[in-house]
Amino acid sequence: MANRFVYAPNFFYLNTCLNIKQVFNFVPVTRHQSTSTPGMPPPGFVGATFIYRIMTSEKILSAAAELFMERGFDAVSVREIAGKAGVNVALINYHFQSKENLFLSVLEDTVSTSRMKLNNLNNADIPSKEKLLQVIDMYTEKIFTNCRGYHFIQRELADTQRPELVDGITKIINKNSAELRRLLEDGQKNKEFRKEADVDMVNATLFGVMYQATHAVLKKRWIRPGEDDMAFKERTRKYLIDLLIGYLIK
What we know:
By secondary structure, the protein is an all-alpha fold. Helices cover 66% and strands 2% of the residues. It is built from eleven helices and two strands; from the N terminus they run H-H-E-E-H-H-H-H-H-H-H-H-H.
């Protein structure tokens, strides 16, 4: 059965990449009847509706991300998200159609930056070893800095009660995995990495170690006495470099 969830795109980059005044031509006009609906543009501006819709969408995404990461999908209601975002429930339905779509939009927002960086690395004219080193650095920094976001994804993937939602999560995550696979396979094609190396297990090893090293309980088994978080992060990074580069190149 086709996945009925279609997550909404994130257009917030327009706010920083474009000159909003030039694009939308914000021009004051005669004040007219005001609106009390949260998330709608203030009176007195022409052409502001579109950008306010983007801003409203971002407010909803930000509130939903915080609540979902803290408590999980099931424990958070649309009404709670609306309250935290300062909008009414109807606006969430307007922008995202459902709680499931909102969740998938939060997930896409969480992983899309990493996917873009992977894609840029794949298109860069540098050795495959250097690309992989940058991948390890990127994920070490990202996951150690925002381990809550990483474990939020793993937690929801483990829930088998919502197969359609898990399928939507998997499709989004697989886009990132495909970029990493491409990087590794390109290294095999140009003979920097061993042809017989198992690129799927390299992927699994990278994120498996990250899971263990950043889990609130599990990481206590691996931190050495007197070792602070910064030193443990660096030890994890060096271990992954030695392990993965050693496996792929020897």
